[in-house]
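dude i think i finally got it to work??
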Amino acid sequence: MKHEETADLPYLRKVVGASMAGTVVEWYEFFLYGTAATLVFGHLFFPDTGNELDGIIAAFATYAVGFIARPLGGIVFGHVGDKVGRKSLLQFSLILIGASTFLMGCLPSFDTIGYWAPALLVTLRFIQGFALGGEWGGAILLVTEHSPNRSRGFWGSFPQAAVPIGNLLATIVLLTLSATLTEEAFLSWGWRVGFWLSVVIVVIGYYIRTQISDSPIFKAAKEEIETKAEAGYGLVEVFRRYPRGVFTAMGLRFGENILYYMVVTFSITYLAHVGVDTTRILTLLFLGHILHVITIPLVGRASDTFGRKPVYILGAALTMAWPFVAFPMLGSGDTVTILAAIMLGLVVHAMMYAPQPAIMTEMFPTRVRYSGVSLGYQVTAIVAGSWAPLIGAWLLREYDAWQPIAFYILAAGAVSLIAAFIMRESKGTSLVAIDEADRQRLGGAPTPGIAPIP
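look at this
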């Protein structure tokens, strides 16, 4: 596997571009929903109870449905992707999430069709989450399996940077619409435009993804699976052979996932609650997302230089401290201070988020890697990010104070800190050596010239 030591950089950049293109599209649509859940859905798709937080909580409950669907998508896409390939499933997931998002923009309101409105919204949200559940694993593996050992953290971080780019696009669209339309027009039809625009960017993303192919190391693993019965793949196999990797990945993901959604989604609710207007909130998030895009590759490079563990440990520790500094800043009402709190949260998040593709890729052999990374990344969302905005809104309603929310984030960060201490350092690891160790574990003879990972 010559590509493990040296890489065709022009082609690698093309792979990175293809991975990012689809990921930008899919996260644009996913985060468009998250922002709209706060600004629009609570008003339009649920009955009026007299307390605006009740509608927001109901909207966040449908937001959670997408996260619950993600592990199912991760299991299905991971299982099939380990056998069939990364590229074809990524194209399918792109079409699926694009169609569901477009249809969300066509839904009638609660006043028009009653409880059919939230029912249809939940159904489309489930489809959207299912598609996204299969997206992440395939997107990052396209890049990390093509990347050189010495710089896998850097290259693997680019699909992660595509997430805030997608969020940035969603924020730009909603910011433009909310700033140029009256509140009545925005709530009536303006918000739908952002969902309909998904058709354009889905077509662009799909085309770009047709221009690349699966990695050589995956093609070799696929041939081995087809010729050797003992070389299994999929959900059962990854849990049977590599449970430590799956559960460590889940722990690493837990605090990172909660922190992100508290910064980019719940902060909208909190700032609106303390009297900050919608346009100013979206503008500040827009600036925060720009910093996030820049920071993620820098942290990815740092994980290649200093190691995966120290970078992740620092990020998890700072996650535990962030809310106690940030919430007083968010409540200050001062624009610069609020922006600093948001940016600080996103920089801390990048310390955990950027190294994840390399870390999770290096936890599993190629034959079960799609299943392993998808499970580690997506299953955690059921108990982490899916509920974070909902729990934050509930705590705010019950206590009307930020301290309980801060302790919730602290506990989440502690889980990831423990996982970071437990995980093995894998900087510079050869994927060929990981596959060789796996092959010998299955009873195969050593391959001359390849030293397996102990």
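Confidence is low (pLDDT under 50) at residues 1-6.
im so relieved honestly
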